[in-house]
Each structure stands twice: as structure tokens, then as C-alpha cells.
Design a protein that fits this description.
By secondary structure, the protein is α+β, with helices and mostly antiparallel strands. It is built from 9 helices and 9 strands.
Length: 239
């Protein structure tokens, strides 16, 4: 009865005002949702690659750049096996690409390449390898929750390093995918690595104890990761 009474006393300009306000409110809520909910804001599936992406790769890196992207796309046609065999194949496939520093490859001290940039250019540094593996595996159907990008200190190299970890179930010891080796080993055997923090498409956590500790926030707190997702979204829209 109240809403009927209210409706009778609305003038057209009132309706227009509330319609505009509702529209702006909806836009604001959607923007906040996309920022605070990364798995809503960005799909981790990368295929199919558009023809414009291949043209971009060829114009930027020559015919070899286009061929590398095609090789990556063809790799997705492998028979989808269980998780273990899938991550083994992905690790070996991606590790064959060239390791190079950000400064020599991208002309910047610290640059996180998208998978398209990584494969088209033919390589990258440890972050680029781990990121390429993460998105290749999620595209092949490995759940995001089973994968973690882990920042570590490589003790033998005495430098920061990024690896990808896979856990078959919550609480299970993670297996480590590393561009330094094709062997995938349990984290307990990687005594050369000291974990610092980990993240995936949604969460950020401390990793000093057993490689997965207390959640400390959203992974978009990591500026390079946030910028990478925005860049990947832009790639999908413009190429």
C-alpha cells in the first residue's frame, strides 16, 4: 500500500532522477566487484587466440613469433589426462623457452609479461615462466585453487625467484614447477628454496610455513599482478 501511495505522487522527473541514480549506482557496484573479485573480473581461460593476435605477433616478433604462438595454441590440443600428467607436459613444454632477464628482454628492471607476450617473444624471466604455466594449466582445466604462484628465495643463487606450486587437495604437500628444472618435486625436497609468500587469482598468503600460511588479503594487492590482469584483459579486447 505504501509503494502504491508513493508511486502515485512520483512525477516524471523524479522517476528519471531515480533511474539515473540507480544506473550510476549499478555501474559503481560492478566496478567494485570487478576490482575486489578477480575471478569475476578476469577469466583465466585464454583460448581461442584471435587472428589479430597472430598478426600482432608477426608484426612485432616476425614469423617466428607467430609460429611460437601457434605452437602454444596447438599444445592445448593434447589429450587431457589426469592432473599429474598434464602438469608434467606443461612444465616440460614451457621450460624449453629461453630464460632471459627483464632488462635485456623488455628493457625494464621488472616486467611481468602476459602469456601471449611470453610465447610470442620466445621467453622471459622466472615470473614469466611461472605465469605462463599458471594460465596454461587453468586453461587446460586445472582449478585455480590447486595452483599457487610462490615467491621464494633461491638459496643457491641468493636471489628472489618465482615458482608455481600444485596441490592435489587442500592440505596436501605442493609439487613445485620450476623453470630451473624439468623435474617436479615435492616442496619438502626443494631445500634450495625458502618460501616467502604465495598467491593465485584470488588470494594472497604468507608461505613461510609449509608453503601455505595465513591468508593476508586479495592477490590484487600485488601491483605487478594487478597490472598483469588488466593488461591481459586489454589484450583480449583489442587484439
Amino acid at each position: 500500500m505504501f509503494f502504491f501511495y508513493l508511486g502515485r505522487h512520483f512525477r516524471k522527473r523524479d522517476v528519471l532522477f531515480f533511474s539515473i541514480r540507480s544506473y550510476l549506482t549499478c555501474c559503481l557496484l560492478c566496478t567494485l566487484l570487478l576490482f575486489y573479485c578477480p575471478h569475476c573480473a578476469f577469466s583465466t581461460e585464454l583460448l581461442p587466440l584471435e587472428e589479430s593476435t597472430f598478426r600482432w605477433a608477426e608484426s612485432r616478433y616476425g614469423l617466428s613469433g607467430k609460429k611460437r604462438l601457434q605452437e602454444w595454441q596447438n599444445f592445448f590440443r593434447i589429450h587431457r589426462e589426469d592432473d599429474w600428467h598434464t602438469i608434467q607436459k606443461v612444465n616440460v613444454f614451457i621450460n624449453k623457452f629461453k630464460f632471459t632477464s627483464d632488462l635485456s628482454h623488455w628493457g625494464q628492471e621488472d616486467y611481468w609479461a602476459t602469456p601471449v607476450e611470453f610465447f610470442a617473444s620466445g621467453g622471459g624471466d622466472c615470473e614469466d615462466f611461472a605465469i605462463a604455466k599458471f594460465f596454461t594449466l587453468t586453461t587446460l582445466g586445472i582449478p585455480n585453487e590447486r595452483l599457487s604462484l610462490i615467491y621464494v628465495k633461491a638459496l643457491r643463487l641468493n636471489q628472489s625467484h618465482l615458482v608455481l606450486a600444485y596441490s592435489s587437495a587442500p592440505g596436501k604437500e605442493p609439487m613445485i614447477l620450476d623453470n630451473l628444472t624439468d623435474a617436479i618435486e615435492p616442496s619438502s625436497r626443494r631445500t634450495d628454496l625458502s618460501p616467502i609468500y604465495g598467491f593465485n587469482a584470488k588470494d594472497l598468503w604468507e608461505a613461510k610455513q609449509r608453503w601455505h600460511g595465513k591468508t593476508i588479503g586479495n592477490s590484487r594487492k600485488i601491483r605487478p599482478w594487478r597490472e598483469l590482469l588488466i593488461k591481459m584483459d586489454r589484450e583480449q579486447q583489442t587484439r
